[in-house]
Write a structure and sequence with these properties.
The chain is an all-alpha fold and 129 residues long. It has 4 helices and no strands. It is rod-shaped.
């Protein structure tokens, strides 16, 4: 259970980083479908994609005309976004695998508990007899 809590905490941190990077609607912007277990927390951060203008960097003066962006910078950013999207998809897959494994472990433990209870009853009747 501690591992699952740790995974969920890490997932929330990564979601916040994605929201900061790609905006509140990062799933739509990065074309990522939500998994069954996550992405319920709303984010109140601004979005580069939803505003349509780049956010000013700290230390740069705010000008009325946007700075020209080179094609290489655009491609680098798109590459980075794609890498983040793939990272998130991989994390979702690992989380699903862990949840399935945990479910199987719980089922096995419950089956063992039933067996143990049955053996206790048998042992109690033998000791009482």
């Amino acid at each position: 259970m501690a591992e699952l809590d740790g995974v969920k905490t890490r997932e929330k941190m990564l979601e916040q980083a994605l929201a900061k990077f790609a905006g509140e609607n990062w799933q739509t912007a990065l074309d990522i479908t939500p998994s069954s277990s996550a992405f319920a927390a709303p984010f109140v951060m601004g979005s580069v994609f939803s505003r349509g203008t780049p956010t000013p960097q700290s230390g740069t003066p705010d000008s009325s005309t946007p700075a020209p962006v080179s094609q290489a910078e655009v491609e680098a950013t798109l590459t980075q976004v794609e890498q983040i999207r793939l990272l998130v998809l991989g994390m979702e897959q690992r989380l699903q695998n862990r949840e399935e494994k945990l479910g199987k472990t719980i089922e096995h433990a419950e089956a063992q508990e039933i067996k143990c209870d049955a053996l206790k009853k048998v042992m109690a009747t033998k000791v009482a007899a």
